[in-house]
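User: Sequence recovery, please. Input:
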């Protein structure tokens, strides 16, 4: 299990989540941010920080956004050398 970033992040990307993640497992591209499914320690710190409620624990992902579970995982298949996003506070 891991946390998942869903559609509301697209076009928002304020990175509040990045600032609170203790293990730097949140990555980004020009579209949105992604949580690494194996690096995430399931601490839940990011979820309440997101201003657009884009983040869900995997099992609580809304039905219409379940495809984002795969989208988050696929990002790391496509970008094995990606470096973690830097937060707005850094
Ligand atoms: S649940 Fe914790 S470890 Fe996982 S992405 Fe959110 S802040 Fe990072
Ligand atoms: S806080 Fe929410 S909208 Fe902002 S980057 Fe993180 S997931 Fe995306």
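Assistant: Recovered sequence (90 residues):
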């Amino acid at each position: 299990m891991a946390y998942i970033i869903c559609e509301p992040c697209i076009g928002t990307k304020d990175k509040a989540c990045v600032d609170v993640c203790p293990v730097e497992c949140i990555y980004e591209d020009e579209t949105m941010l992604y949580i690494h499914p194996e690096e995430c320690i399931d601490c839940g710190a990011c979820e309440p920080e997101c201003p657009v409620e884009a983040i869900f624990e995997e099992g609580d992902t809304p039905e219409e956004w379940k495809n984002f579970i795969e989208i988050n995982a696929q990002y790391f298949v496509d970008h094995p050398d990606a470096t973690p996003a830097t937060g707005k506070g850094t």
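Helices lie at 16-20, 67-78.
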